[in-house]
Amino acid sequence: MLLLRRLRYLFKMSLAVSLRRALLLLLSGAIFILTVLYWNQGVIKTQSYNEAQLRPHLQKDRSSAPIPLEKSWTYKCDNDRCVRVNYNKNGANVKRVSFISCSMTCGDINIWPHPTSKSLVSGHTLRFSVEDVQLRLDTPHREVRKRLKLAFDVLVRQLRQIQQLEYAAPRAEEISSVSEPASKSTDGAASPLASGLFSSTFGSHRSGDLDSLHVKLSVHESGELDFNLDNDESYELATSFEHRRLTVHIRAKSFFGARHGLATLQQLIWYDDEERLLCTYASSLINDAPKFRYRGLMLDTSRHFFSVDAIKRTISAMGLAKLNRFHWHITDAQSFPYISRHYPELAEHGAYSDSETYSEQDVREVTEYAKIFGVQVLLEIDAPAHAGNGWDWGPKRGLGELSLCINQQPWSFYCGEPPCGQLNPKNNHTYLILQRLYEEFLQLTGPTDIFHLGGDEVNLDCWAQYFNDTDLRGLWCDFMLQSNARLKVANGNVAPKHVVVWSSALTNTKCLPNSQFVVQVWGGSTWQENYDLLDNGYNIIFSHVDAWYLDCGFGSWRATGDAACSPYRTWQNVYKHRPWERMRLDKKRRKQVLGGEACLWTEQVDEGQLDNRLWPRVAALAERLWSDPNDDHDFDVVPPEVFRRISVFRNRLVELGIKAEALFPKYCAQNPGECI
Amino acid sequence: MILNSCNRCYLTLLLCVAAAAAGSVPDDSGESGPTTRSKWLCDSTDLCLPEESLLPGEGHEQPRHRYESQRDCRLSCGKYGAIWPMPTGECSLSHDRVPFDPWKVRFNVVAPNEVTTQFLRETNRLFVSNLLKECIRNCTLAASKEVLVKATVTDSSLVLDWKTDESYMIVVRTTDKVSFVDIKAATVYGARFAFETLSNLVTGSVTNGLLLVSSARVTDQPVYPHRGLLLDTSRNFLPLRYIRNTLDAMAASKMNVLHWHVVDTHSFPLEITRVPEMQRYGAYSNAQTYSHTDALNLVKYARLRGIRIIMEIDGPSHAGSGWQWGPSAGLGNMSVCLNQSPWRNYCVQPPCGQLNPINDHMYAVLKEIFADIAELGAPEETIHMGGDEVFIPCWNRTEEITTQMKARGYDLSQESFLRLWSQFHQRNVKAWDDINLQMYPSVREPKPVILWSSKLTDPEYIEQMLPKERFIIQTWVAAQSPLNRELLRKGYRILISTKDAWYLDHGFWGNTQYYNWRKVYDNALPIDAPNNQKRQVLGGEVCMWSEYVDQNSLEARIWPRAGGAAERLWSNPKSSAYLAERRFYRYRERLIARGIHPDAVLPHWCVLHEGQCL
């Protein structure tokens, strides 16, 4: 009403006639809006109830200002377990403890994978900002220096990303509610209020407990940067703290160890949403080295195409989990996305589309990126089987049939899954092309002591249509030996120390020399071949279908036939799989086990689900292979302590933009131990 | 007017979201590069094949039509072309195409009143935005034919419930200069489905613009009136953006009910304006909440896509977080067995919590929650009151309950507890009726509420416990269970969520098994007896429980499998998934185009090479 009167007054003061008209228009508009508002109010009023009668409880609570929800909980460490309790504002000087700070300081060290020999951290934590983190390099090797710098940059970039994440939608009341505990806090300069305000306005510089956090990386012994299975990956991390200066000293014998030290350091740091700063321990001491040398993940980019970004994202997560081999199953019978410099025809005929291809530049980009994360990229052209589309142009160029049975039907007679295609073992051009491809790969990835030749699921009936050799398996054997010979030529006449093939009928014979060949066992973990291969002296990489095949569990993708390998392997299945224990291997045979690898075949996965199909299950494998913790629990039971750590690790992945699958209801993450 | 402007902003929002989503992930459904240039043929077995793959002797009679791409071919190869779900009435599609520019489509709306006209205008806008997503290259086409779409609706009501007429008819015909699309439907919702079907008659052209089937005639109506999807936002929170995406995908699948299992023992993310404590004590965090306005907006968003949102407030079981504040407010224990351990003694799944049926304050609070829910929905909308997995030992171990029961002259037999439990539901239904009477006096009939099947709905007890006029039972038993049949025989209306086919969370925990889209598709529901006057089988729902799912894997877990259920519920086909295969793959690609991230179901090669991966 007051507004109306004022408007009238203005109106009476009246100016020109035209202005009057405009004012009249404005006035009527305002009246209209007011009426609408008033009317709306009325509607709401009629819908509400007689409050006093129905809501005795409301009278009490109305007065108190609403507090942000997450701030109404605080966490208490009770018996190595964080317990959620109501944060009582009246509880005077007790500071609210955020979940992550509790989780990082309660119980055993919260690092994934768990360090193997020694790990001590203090309960005393320090707050700092990413701007305080500085690098000090202590190594005589120039190239190592360069790469350590890159690895350190990754650490800082990711810490910055974490520090800048918005955890809760910032609302006005949030800051006001912080003020209460803050005013009672004795720690003047670094009070949460001050830091909260600083972080929102001035970027939180110098607001924590530290003036600087020095990361000192010492690598003296080896300047080695090429990947080989004998890389020393151990490291030692120790801190010293004085005069608001924290020094984290990582000592390693090689770049690889130092990088793992950085991955550990990253997990010793967390973002506290109460303090709005990064936190770490005032003192920590860790001695760590992996139990297995080969800790891999295989991705198939033929059944579905995956972008370079998706692959790089995957590799960065592998780095955090300290996995060290990315096995890139780059081609298969379905498609040939790799554009070879020597034979671009392969991709021209074999890629799904022009955009679904990898150029040499793409592969180099992935390889170089992976090196920063201590991950070696191993490219596999599967042969002789699993090679069809992309290999069909031979006759047109006068090179003869490079591959046989391409897309032949009925497929079940000639291959393991449609479409069929198996390289022609009697065409010299086929070998030449393979040799060129190997050459290109070796150039792109750099020197290596290990190379994957494929070699799985050969269907002899396919070849039997073309050749009347009585010994078709001999033909297969010859093929593998011939391609191995070509590999040697491609590698500058030096045979790689280890050549990997998939387990198959051939690896059960004496065809492949056990001095050089490594068998990647993908059959069942209880099969006899596991024992036989070890007895025959082969080195082994485990990829058991019944534990470490991540594509299983989604039913059959064909209209006919059963699902190949249901059910789904949960992260617990992956974690609890310890074939070396179950097989009771003696010391000698245990040494033949180089490690393990999880496999993601992509018949039923494309880029939209890549992250959640891989993570956090690959992380479970990472700890199995790095720390190989003892496990005397029943089938399917994982100790609460493991839940607690993998849950935090999963959150770290999500913070870094990896769309990892949920482990359980969030309630269970907020209340460790309650859901087991 | 206000509604109108809001709708517009939703549309922009939707477009932004969709564009962002589409930009971030490469479309795996891109046309095959090397084979794009060849022509495609639809062979006698309804396979789309590249011309050169057909040997001269193979096709006994040369097919007349050559298509520029596989997708072009798919538009009319097979009786139902690329329409998902398959129409139940007449369906004829021509093999000719009209290239057109989506910006040059003109709409004419004939509707009985302002609200229906407005609704259809919004439908037109959503339709165009969906068309634009189909463009492969540039959408604009200089030499475009004009496309005139006329939509006629006769019913003036916007009521959407189980009685709503969702049928429609669409006719496309093309003259020298113009293509006419004639849509006729009783309600706006029927007309909206016609627009969905129309979008299934369109695909991107390998040059510019879009291709439309030049003449078509489809009459269609759903078999079941309740075609739903359950979304659980309590076990893990789902941001609104992902719920909206889910609604978009449901709209594309002609599904019409989002069953929003918004709260559970784990968390209470929904704001109850009348009882703010619920959210304050129950949500995971500030960021993980839905405000009253959020929910209102979501209901509107769904409405424009022909979808009802039925909210579920589960009780007496599955209620813990959010209910803790009773003692401190002097209202006593509203939920009992809260977070008790060992949980196996107090509930089916941790954390525990079950409402206290002898606490009157609890009923008062529950009534206020219901009032909030009633305010969210349309006047005709009902509520789901849960009622599953009540764990009687919890009540039996709570002294205040057993004492009170004894005082009321009950023994502590199972029967007594069942009676207590049924009183809980009946009292709540009464409260629900009161609220509706006050809030929506125009709605005459009391609304039935939905309950899960449980011990209480056991055919042995149900008639004494739950009157059939007031309760619809949502069964969640295995396909083999006799429960559905028995409830039908007793005259109950049912919704079906077949546990061993439509539980989308299965296959990732415990002893459960994953159901692929074929299994979801082939899950046939019981049908009403032909002489039955009253509709008893209302339909069904696929269920997305979120224990092991959050936004990171939600879409892939639901889609495209829920699409299998969508066709089951709309068309109830006699044929198996095998015959729907290629239409289904096309449907999946359409979801991708619309910004959804469905799971992959088979190697891309097999999609491009039809009939080669049997």
Automatic annotation (TrEMBL), chain A:
<keyword id="KW-0812">Transmembrane</keyword>
<feature type="transmembrane region" description="Helical">
    <location>
        <begin position="21"/>
        <end position="39"/>
    </location>
</feature>
<feature type="domain" description="Rhodanese">
    <location>
        <begin position="533"/>
        <end position="566"/>
    </location>
</feature>
<keyword id="KW-0325">Glycoprotein</keyword>
<dbReference type="GO" id="GO:0005886">
    <property type="term" value="C:plasma membrane"/>
</dbReference>
<dbReference type="InterPro" id="IPR025705">
    <property type="entry name" value="Beta_hexosaminidase_sua/sub"/>
</dbReference>
<keyword id="KW-0472">Membrane</keyword>
<dbReference type="Pfam" id="PF14845">
    <property type="entry name" value="Glycohydro_20b2"/>
</dbReference>
<dbReference type="GO" id="GO:0030203">
    <property type="term" value="P:glycosaminoglycan metabolic process"/>
</dbReference>
<dbReference type="InterPro" id="IPR001763">
    <property type="entry name" value="Rhodanese-like_dom"/>
</dbReference>
<protein>
    <recommendedName>
        <fullName>Beta-hexosaminidase</fullName>
        <ecNumber>3.2.1.52</ecNumber>
    </recommendedName>
</protein>
<keyword id="KW-0326">Glycosidase</keyword>
<keyword id="KW-0378">Hydrolase</keyword>
<dbReference type="GO" id="GO:0016231">
    <property type="term" value="F:beta-N-acetylglucosaminidase activity"/>
</dbReference>
<comment type="similarity">
    <text>Belongs to the glycosyl hydrolase 20 family.</text>
</comment>
<dbReference type="InterPro" id="IPR029019">
    <property type="entry name" value="HEX_eukaryotic_N"/>
</dbReference>
<dbReference type="Pfam" id="PF00728">
    <property type="entry name" value="Glyco_hydro_20"/>
</dbReference>
<dbReference type="GO" id="GO:0005975">
    <property type="term" value="P:carbohydrate metabolic process"/>
</dbReference>
<dbReference type="InterPro" id="IPR017853">
    <property type="entry name" value="GH"/>
</dbReference>
<keyword id="KW-0732">Signal</keyword>
<keyword id="KW-1133">Transmembrane helix</keyword>
<feature type="active site" description="Proton donor">
    <location>
        <position position="457"/>
    </location>
</feature>
UniProtKB/TrEMBL annotation, chain B:
<keyword id="KW-0325">Glycoprotein</keyword>
<dbReference type="Pfam" id="PF14845">
    <property type="entry name" value="Glycohydro_20b2"/>
</dbReference>
<dbReference type="InterPro" id="IPR029018">
    <property type="entry name" value="Hex-like_dom2"/>
</dbReference>
<feature type="domain" description="Beta-hexosaminidase eukaryotic type N-terminal">
    <location>
        <begin position="140"/>
        <end position="199"/>
    </location>
</feature>
<dbReference type="InterPro" id="IPR017853">
    <property type="entry name" value="GH"/>
</dbReference>
<dbReference type="GO" id="GO:0030203">
    <property type="term" value="P:glycosaminoglycan metabolic process"/>
</dbReference>
<keyword id="KW-0326">Glycosidase</keyword>
<dbReference type="GO" id="GO:0005886">
    <property type="term" value="C:plasma membrane"/>
</dbReference>
<feature type="signal peptide">
    <location>
        <begin position="1"/>
        <end position="22"/>
    </location>
</feature>
<dbReference type="InterPro" id="IPR025705">
    <property type="entry name" value="Beta_hexosaminidase_sua/sub"/>
</dbReference>
<dbReference type="InterPro" id="IPR029019">
    <property type="entry name" value="HEX_eukaryotic_N"/>
</dbReference>
<comment type="similarity">
    <text>Belongs to the glycosyl hydrolase 20 family.</text>
</comment>
<keyword id="KW-0732">Signal</keyword>
<feature type="active site" description="Proton donor">
    <location>
        <position position="389"/>
    </location>
</feature>
<protein>
    <recommendedName>
        <fullName>Beta-hexosaminidase</fullName>
        <ecNumber>3.2.1.52</ecNumber>
    </recommendedName>
</protein>
<dbReference type="InterPro" id="IPR015883">
    <property type="entry name" value="Glyco_hydro_20_cat"/>
</dbReference>
<dbReference type="GO" id="GO:0005975">
    <property type="term" value="P:carbohydrate metabolic process"/>
</dbReference>
<keyword id="KW-0378">Hydrolase</keyword>
<dbReference type="Pfam" id="PF00728">
    <property type="entry name" value="Glyco_hydro_20"/>
</dbReference>
<feature type="domain" description="Glycoside hydrolase family 20 catalytic">
    <location>
        <begin position="224"/>
        <end position="572"/>
    </location>
</feature>
<dbReference type="GO" id="GO:0016231">
    <property type="term" value="F:beta-N-acetylglucosaminidase activity"/>
</dbReference>
